[in-house]
Amino acid sequence: MASATFLSTLSLANKNYLLLTPTHACAKGYTNNFRVSNLPSIVVRKEGSVRSQGFVAMQEKGGSTLSDDSRTKTPHVLTVAGSDSGAGAGIQADLKACAARGVYCSTVITALTAQNTIGVQGASNVPEDFVAQQLKSVLSDMQVDVVKTGMLPSVGIVKTLCRTLREYPVHALVVDPVMVSTSGDVLAGPSILSTFREELLPMADIITPNLKEASALLNGMQLETVDDMRSAARLLHNMGPKNVLVKGGDLPDSLDAVDILYNGHNFYELRSPRIRTRNTHGTGCSLASSIAAEVAKGYPMLSAVKVAKRFVETALDYSKEIVIGNGPQGPFDHLLRLKSHSQDCHRQQPFDPSDLFLYAVTDSRMNKRWGRSIVDAVKAAIDGGATIIQLREKDAETKDFLESAKACLRICRLHGVPLLINDRVDVAIACDADGVHVGQSDMPACVARTLLGPEKIIGVSCKTPEQAEQAWVDGADYIGCGGVYPTNTKENNITVGLNGLKTVCMASKLPVVAIGGIGVSNARAVMEIRTPNLKGVAVVSALFDRECVQTETRKLHEVLLGSNIGST
Ligand SMILES: Nc1ncnc2c1ncn2[C@@H]1O[C@H](COP(=O)(O)OP(=O)(O)OP(=O)(O)O)[C@@H](O)[C@H]1O
Ligand SMILES: Cc1ncc(CO)c(N)n1
Ligand SMILES: [Mg+2]
Fold this sequence. Notes:
Distance between the termini: 74 Å
Bound molecules: adenosine-5'-triphosphate, 4-amino-5-hydroxymethyl-2-methylpyrimidine, magnesium ion
Strand content: 15-25%
Number of strands: 21
Number of helices: 19
Keywords: ATP-binding, Chloroplast, Kinase, Magnesium, Metal-binding, Multifunctional enzyme, Nucleotide-binding, Plastid, Thiamine biosynthesis, Transferase, Transit peptide
Main location: plastid
Family: Belongs to the thiamine-phosphate synthase family.
Shape: elongated
Pfam families: Phos_pyr_kin, TMP-TENI
Largest sheet: 9 strands, mixed
CATH architecture of the largest domain: 3-Layer(aba) Sandwich
Structural class: alpha/beta
Radius of gyration: 30 Å
GO molecular function, one term: ATP binding
């Protein structure tokens, strides 16, 4: 049995920190094997013992870590579990959940399963001594913070794990006592129950049985209501784990997904709306891994469980319609990416610099003046031959802007024309636009790149070769150079002229679009500076401060074609 949980609050540097100690590291037989971890760590000598190891967890409200040193290590979860060939549960779910939650995950594989959305067709255990070898390889080298267990298919493997954990103590142990898959296939037989009860559960910081597993651990106790779940949690807690989470994913007749967390003092009833979906295979593994991930980051158990549950709920909701496999229980998408790809038949094309040829930039004031909606303006520009659109809505309310952007995106995708958002990276992300255009005092392009990911288009306004170089370094795709001519659209804008444009084009490693006071009368002169990097012109007033946007766009298109430069 683990020794009793010892909780205290201590004051350090005028801040209250919650000191959790000892963790399971002081369970019977742990060796005196301490190490420095990313988690603010305090070795606690309790009752003359030097065996116990604890860590300072962040407080529920706005906690903070103890020292800068403590922030340098990457949080690390080791999952000890079975492989699922269908990749919805097991090791594969654990890897995806940890990646989604932003922690590193190493893997010790205990069994291979041949599994899909129909069920488990076969299983083959990894030999005990090879499980031991994998455990040693990882634990002796990689500074694991939290071990999470899943399928442990034999008594020998459970014992091997317990022995190795005593030799290499970690900060926390999360045990998902996997026994039966949702398809009803046995992943670990009843023979392991006694070793679970006697050896593994007492070492655990949390165990996360589903209803069937809780029932099996409690000799077949019937579990049909939330009250039954509370009773089960209390009885399981008596077996030694610090926390028990009884999961109610399979609770009959429950509109909500209810889980009960019990820490020996309090019960917490955690509820979320039940998502109506067939794609729930691997929810248990993912929940346990996400709890492990949050604990590895340093959060206290209650916060970790809450965040993990919300993550699973969000991922299920996001994935409720994805179609993978023909069986009754499909996998879900931890990384929240598959839906937009599978449902979007007009996928974004990779950035093509020739798209900068006729670059139309909308202006809310001009649209208002001419009594047209932003959607109508975009439609007309595309019909006239615009090759890329940027929405520049300085005055719009965010909610309205987002709605307009979504409507414009549908039109742009239909015509294969990229849609960029000016300044507002948040709006671009929210509507899944093709990219953003940022100015020198907006969000730096490198930060926008981190937020938007590698595929999105990022343009930066530049007036000098130095700014153009920085845009390249920051990972932009193109630069906008100007104002080439004086313009009313931008107040106090310094004009660079054709010479300034040429200097920047010559220096730039990125394709360039010219902007500022350009229209039908001078577009040809701009393109005739003849530098290979200049791919087109960006235009606001010459298209949108006119009665007929389509006609003006067509005229400009003809002029540009006549200049015979930059077009595809
Ligand atoms: N349809 C659903 N909507 C929302 N949450 C759900 C749904 N199904 C399960 N959950 C939640 O997912 C988590 C995992 O619970 P569940 O009871 O499904 O585990 P499990 O049976 O071990 O899963 P598996 O063995 O398929 O990996 C719990 O927090 C549960 O409340
Ligand atoms: C390998 C493996 N582990 C756990 C589960 C439980 O979901 C499963 N179906 N397969
Ligand atoms: Mg499970």
